[in-house]
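anyone seen this seq b4? input:
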Amino acid sequence: MAGDTDTRKERNWLSESRAQKAINNLRRNRINVWYVPNSTEALSTILSMIPYDATVARGDSITLDQIGIIPALLERGRNQVTDPFELDANGKLVHKLEHTRDMHLKAFTADIYLAGCNAVTLDGKLVNTDGTGNRVAPMIFGPKKVILVVGVNKIVEDAEEGRKRIREICAPLDVKRYLIKQDQSQYADLPCAKTGFCADCKHEYRFCCYTVIIEAVAITERDRINVILIGEDLGY
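predicted toks r here
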């Protein structure tokens, strides 16, 4: 049938349907959430949520980089931005990971904390795993407002499927990113770096050490956690 090779409309319909179910349940758990169709609208939405005088810190997130929020804030020239994951002109990290502790600590006193999210569940939970906890810790305590950017590809059934997604997709790809793009050879011996499969390893450089499942926002913290759900496949 003519036109059957273009599947965007039906895929967008399915993504929006799944997103709406997740949105309804996130809101029941006092997690603010907005659905936007694309990265361009995501950028304008996030900028509208950040006051000109707000201090901003960020966590490691490919989705943030794909949207371009940090360059937009720097161009605005009104916000103090702490970016431990700043890249140079060659795409290499400006700050060595072992020297960024003080920068990560600034996230806890920031007005705005920006990060991605490994998985959003249809029943309204946020699932994330870190190697050192510098991203998940300020999600749950510290900064006045948290804004998480998430592509629809990260919507999963429940927390267990979220953890499975992290083991099977997020962690292997992230390890490979640091190996290929940042030349961090210490990760080369990780099982997932070699095979692409999680082995629940005990390696000293294991990426998956701290898992946080945000099931709801405390009533005293209402409006603190905000999710921008984007109708595109973004990040890992």
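The helical segments are 8-28, 39-49, 62-67, 69-76, 101-105, 136-140, 159-180, 191-195. The CA atoms of residues 48 and 90 lie 30 Å apart. kinda curious what u guys think
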